[in-house]
Fold each of these.
Amino acid sequence: MGLLFVALILCAFPLFFQTIEKRNGIILNDPLLRWLPAHNVSLALFIIIWALCLLAIYRAARHPYMFLTFLWAYILLSVFRMLAITLVPLNPPVGLIGLVDPIGNFFYGEKFVTKDLFFSGHTSTVFLLYLCFPGRKDKKIALVVTVLVAFLLLVQHVHYTLDVLGAFLFAWVAYRVARTTVLKEEAASQLSIGIMPTLMGFGQVRLAAISLSLVAALKRPRPAAGKIHGILLPAHSPGVS
């Protein structure tokens, strides 16, 4: 079910992003971007983002819990982002340099998109991976990548500072909701698995007890002739009527 939702969201992305690209928004006054010169760092962003994604795929194949948590969190994150972009119309920052990502741009449609601003999809996704990774070493790697991605997006003036900061909050909320949901489903599954053997065991004990009772009844000696339940019957005398 989760994979179906992801497929539907990815199919809806091109239409959504091409639609929001046609509208006008506001330009934010961002002191950090005014101070930070714009440079094209698309190649560096592409390498570190997709290297982390490959690591995540490898880990998720070995940790189903990580896969399920990220899957549902990403669905929520995508819904959050589409709502946020719809409700907060922004024009791109001054000095924006288009981000070249042959894989990511495939889901944005034919026309280059610059108004998918609040909040940053790249930052929120890599931070979500950081939250979902089970091992400390992987978490450290993902955290470094998250900081680098956030900084390089600002260097390229692809996002406002607000977009990057908001990404952390929305990713955390999506992760917490997904994690709680997956944990509840796992607990319910474990409970059902634990109850069934107990019920089966109880039934087997009852069946064994009934079987033993029947065997004991069949082996019980029958009453001797002329004696029923401990009562001695009078003997029959021939010729006496």
Amino acid sequence: MQPARQCETGIPSGGPRTLSSSGQELPQTIRMDVRMIAATDRDLKAAIAVGKFRSDLFYRLNVFPIHVPPLRERRSDIPLLVEHFLRAHGSKAGTQLRSVDEKTLEMLQTYSWPGSMLDAYCSPD
């Protein structure tokens, strides 16, 4: 990344910080403690090496990494995910979806799931 395109992350290190508002008659200070969760399927260390991702941001985000294997490596999770998505989409549609038939569940479990969890979430739509 070109130096002119880089900017300060604005992510403080350490414990709780304060945020001060401006543009009000009486400035207000708000105490805050923020945790951020970020996910990607990219090799960020390789992206840093070629200048496509900022190393300072990577090290701020990579404090407590959690590796979740792809769904294709966790096929036993599929029935639980189907149950969750049926409840979630049923609530959104204002109905109660109870289950899928065995043939549909078998099809989902034998699918290669080449993408991400977002693909799984969007599939029922």
